[in-house]
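Preliminary data (for renewal application), magnesium ion complex.
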Amino acid sequence: ASTSGTQPTGNGHSVNGSSSSSDVSSERVQVINDEKEFSPDLSKQIEKWGLQSAGFDYDIVAVFGSQSTGKSTLLNRLFGTNFDVMDETRRQQTTKGIWMCKGKGMNVLVMDVEGTDGRERGEDQDFERKSALFSLASSEVLIVNLWEHQVGLYQGANMGLLKTVFEVNLGLFGKKNPDGRNQRTMLLFVIRDHIGTTPLANLQATLTADMNKIWETLSKPAELKDRQLSDYFDLSFAALPHKILAADKFESEIQELRKRFVDKSREDYVFKPAYHKRIPADGVAFYMEGIWEQVQTNKDLDLPTQRELLAQFRCDEISSAALQEFNEQAKPQRRPIESGKVVEGLGKMMSAWRSHALERYDRDASRYHQGVYKRKRVDLVGVLDSTLSPLFFGQLKNLHKSCLVAYKKEMIDGMRGEGYNFAEVVAAARERLEKRFLEGAQEAVVEGTDWSYEEELGLLREEARIVADQCRKDETKKMVNVIERNFKKQISEPVEVYLNQPSPDMWDKVLKVFRDTLDKAEAAYLAKAKSFDCTEEENATALAILRKRAWLALRAKIDEQTSDAAFLSKLRNFFEERFRYDENGTPRVWKPEDDIDGAFRKAKEQTLELIPLYWKIKPLDPSLEFTLPSETSDPLTSTEEFDFPATLVIFSETKSLDLTNRFRKDADAYFVEAKRSTVSSVAQ
Ligand code: GDP
Ligand code: MG
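Predicted structure:
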């Protein structure tokens, strides 16, 4: 390198600051190096210059002109940059490339093209053509720098090169911007070493005529044949005095020219919005690289395609940056949700992450090609929502579970003690369940998504219904048990009394008291069941159970009263009353003349008649007969088959015979005892 302060980097590019300053703003970057390679550092450098989020709020200017015409000197004066200026004493420059600096205190990217004018020196014209093309495609303002004496000299003013550049790019300029306007560029002619004898106006007229002449001689495609130079370019002019011979004037004129780059209120302000290439600052490096690549491979420059490629690249980058932040926010909530927790304020958090990611994306990406921006936004929304939806649905599931637990607890608490109304307890718990779930579910919904909690709510309602049903069944069961216990208490005594007073209508009495008590029990059930919201069917089932249990309770009481021992003692008592007592209830004292045999036989026969009275539950009055459907199965106690007619039988035939025999033996003992007593009384 010919200049101090330039440090080549490993990749053949140079990035550096001026030797005297480490100020970032004075750093420069070699966008295109001697080897015609694009710098990998441009993007980073633009960021370092603080332009990353400038959006469209920046401008690009480039310079074009013969070698050693004071281009770098001009740029440094105008923009406070520090491009290399050719050493006066050596008067030669061999480096080629395009350098970029940021204008001091202004958002202007300045490009200095080194090594132009190969044509004049008979050297490599390829680089000149490419760099000019590149400058035109990326800059708003192209400064065409030339000596006054070059005006009107076709070759010397690089007019030939301009012609080539215009020509190969007619296709490029023919394409319109997304907003329908032509892409416009300003060509600012700066005439150097202006002596003053020829007024600027005359020079201007000559240059304008020359440009138009070049334009006319271009071989244009048929569809662009009527296009004028002015459809694409605005021409502007400035003249500067000799730098050495009129040094003061030179400096003041440059300051005057500078105003056209900084003072937006001036009519001749050069950075008009129409010239802006509408590439967001954060995409400039990628865009320029694409342009250079096309220029390098001699492809027709197609700016709309470049814009779209840029948009795809940048929108992807912006999207993944937004997504990364979003994922970092969302990740910590995944575990609690998976472990079954209801995360407080999840919906608010999710909405915030989501809208923050989208705002970030919109802010940076919306400046790019709208079609691409919108397409990638849809993709981004898809990824965001597919990350959030498991949290949403997990939250719903957890909410469902916790609400159901609270619901069950409320039901249990509500049914503590006496005097509660089951239906009211259920209704209140149910209302709170829905309220709680809806509050949580509505909180979790994120605006802009199509998530719904209706399905989960449906499931929850269904489960709540099952829980309530189960509770009601348990309650009914409890109630039936209570009624059954009361029933048993109520029938116990009367049945015992009736069974101890054998008479032909004994079963009528037993069945009557059974019937009455059962009616009362059924009425008690129905009164309570009203508050349970029980269905007809459930009531029918419960009543059937109640009837069967009542019947079995009666049977148990009868069994107790007719067990072998109890029944034999009944027979004995009955027999004794008739054999050992007379009609008046006075104990008999047997005398030898008494008809012991007759009395014994009579009492025995009467007693034995009791067996057919007791063996089966059989009222005299047929209307008192009780029946139950056989084989009623009890879903509450899972009772097996039930054969009602069998339950009417108290003793089997064998049992009857056995009891008869056992009683006979007891009776015989009484007889023998009676006989003995006469013998002993005779003996006295
Ligand atoms: P570049 O090659 O076009 O970038 O030219 P430089 O800025 O490196 O300048 C080349 C030489 O011309 C240097 O020695 C400058 O001092 C000198 N120079 C700069 N501006 C002017 C000017 O306006 N008039 C004259 N005559 N010389 C200039
Ligand atoms: Mg230079």
